[in-house]
Write a structure and sequence with these properties.
This protein is an alpha+beta fold and about 230 residues long. The protein has a single domain (about 5-220), classed as Nuclear Transport Factor 2, Chain: A (Roll). The chain has ten helices and five strands.
Length: about 230
């Protein structure tokens, strides 16, 4: 089920943990949640702040993370996972098959896809910890194109890793009562739609229940779902 997209770009996914995927289960940290619920506003400062905090925390805990990946999970759960709307990510990934899914199937799909994607990206992120420590200015955010009243926004950044040419990453967000990420585009390629191709082919061949069963088993075994160029060697 591995999907290859632009090799020099997709390695960057490991730094943005589950910013697919996908993919909210937790609430904002207190002051950020209150601020975002009170006013619409430009989401870029929030995204910049969280990613900066993520990189700082990973660098500060790099030695401990090398010994215990669960530390990276806790950091991701605190800073990044709350920004992602996993139900919406799941709907995008499952595509047309979502309409015919029962409520029980939908709930299980959200859970299994969330678990798979978060574990996958945290695993990749942890494997690139040396790059995180050595690259101090790897992310350069572009000027915001947000207009007052917009309920959808794209936070754009150039990300460079390991001496590679910078690649443009776009965090796609929408606003209901707070800003949520529902997709990430790397060099214009939607990660949610990329995964839709993979899962859609499996559903078409074997059915929705079979996909759920396979995702459940892969999560039980601790497997990951990443393109070959991103997966840890």
């Amino acid at each position: 089920m591995m999907i290859c997209v632009a090799k020099h770009v997709l390695k960057l996914q490991g730094l943005i943990a589950g910013l697919i995927v996908a993919f909210s289960v937790a609430s904002y940290a207190a002051e950020a949640a209150i601020s975002e619920k009170v006013t619409l506003g430009d989401p870029q400062p929030l995204v910049e702040k969280r990613i900066h905090e993520l990189l700082v925390r990973l660098r500060d805990n790099s030695d401990a993370i090398r010994k215990d990946k669960s530390i990276a999970y806790r950091i991701s759960d605190e800073l990044i996972v709350p920004l992602i709307d996993f139900p919406r990510v799941t709907r995008l990934v499952i595509g047309k098959y979502w309409r015919d899914a029962t409520e029980a199937q939908r709930e299980e799909l959200i859970k299994q896809i969330r678990d798979l994607l978060v574990r996958s990206y945290v695993t990749a992120m942890s494997s690139y910890i040396d790059d995180l420590v050595s690259e101090k200015n790897m992310i350069d955010f572009m000027p915001s194109n947000y207009q007052p009243g917009d309920r959808k926004a794209s936070v754009r950044a150039n990300i460079a890793l390991g001496g590679r040419a910078p690649a443009e990453v776009q965090y796609q967000l929408y606003y209901v009562d707070q800003w949520k990420i529902y997709d990430i585009r790397i060099e214009g390629i939607s990660l949610a739609l990329t995964y839709r191709t993979s899962f859609g082919e499996q559903i078409n061949r074997e059915g929705l229940d079979n996909l759920i069963a396979q995702l459940t088993e892969r999560n039980r075994k601790g497997e990951i779902e990443l393109p070959k160029s991103v997966a840890p060697q």
